[in-house]
Specification:
Elements: H1 4-15, H2 36-43, H3 45-56, H4 62-72, E1 76-77, E2 86-95, E3 101-103, E4 107-114, E5 117-122, E6 127-136, E7 139-148, E8 163-171, E9 176-182, E10 190-197
Antiparallel strand pairs: 1-8, 2-3, 2-4, 2-10, 4-5, 5-6, 6-7, 7-8, 8-9, 9-10
Helix pairs in contact: 1-4
Length: 199
């Protein structure tokens, strides 16, 4: 019988070349202006995911490795924008970087509709963000910025060090979403932010 650690490593290794191929098609819609750096980050999403996952394989927690494997083996789809508004619990999973794999606890997030515009916000925790959501390619592009604690939210472009770009997709039928942030500016190689609707 294969040791659980090696089984997890084998599973994740097989995923390295094939996980979530649809996310790589997340495109920047016409009229959305990004810095050259952030255009490169979005176009390098698959590379960031593979590099982050390769480092995450070295994590000692089997539960954390299995969590990531489950997320990255679920077929993604582009969510219908009209289904997104609501309240969510959300957690950040950091692949690679300072540590091999870091899984945070659950916080509160929300997606809000304001006319035809959609915004996403992380409401609780020490590192929060706000952003706009735009349908693009096979995913939904997120363009936003981070802020600490109860500091006022930043807008995209206010401080390039705080700018965030990512690609949002739906996983399965339960309303779960995952936002992939390639090559964040701090701490990690690739971030996954998981959203689960609060019923």
């Amino acid at each position: 019988m294969m040791n659980p650690f090696f089984r997890s490593v084998v599973t994740a290794s097989l995923m390295l070349g094939s996980v979530l191929p649809a996310f790589a098609a997340c495109a920047v819609p016409e009229g959305i202006r990004l810095s050259d750096t952030d255009k490169d980050r979005i176009s390098s999403l698959a590379e960031a995911r593979s590099r982050g996952l390769a480092q995450a394989l070295r994590a000692t927690s089997a539960a954390d490795r299995d969590l990531v494997a489950g997320l990255l083996s679920t077929a993604p789809s582009r969510p219908a924008l009209e289904t997104l508004p609501g309240d969510y619990r959300c957690r950040t999973i950091k692949l690679g970087g300072i540590t091999d794999l870091t899984v945070y606890g659950w916080f509160r997030c929300a997606i809000r509709a304001e006319g035809d515009a959609l915004s996403v916000v992380k409401l609780t925790g020490s590192q929060n963000f706000t952003g706009a959501l735009h349908a693009g390619g096979e995913g939904v592009l997120m363009v936003g910025a981070g802020h600490y604690n109860q500091d006022p939210p930043n807008g995209y472009g206010d401080d390039p060090e705080r700018d965030i770009v990512g690609c949002l997709a739906a996983l399965g039928e339960a309303g779960t979403l995952v936002l992939e942030e390639p090559f964040p500016r701090f701490e990690s190689v690739h971030d996954l932010i998981v959203f689960e609707p609060i019923r």
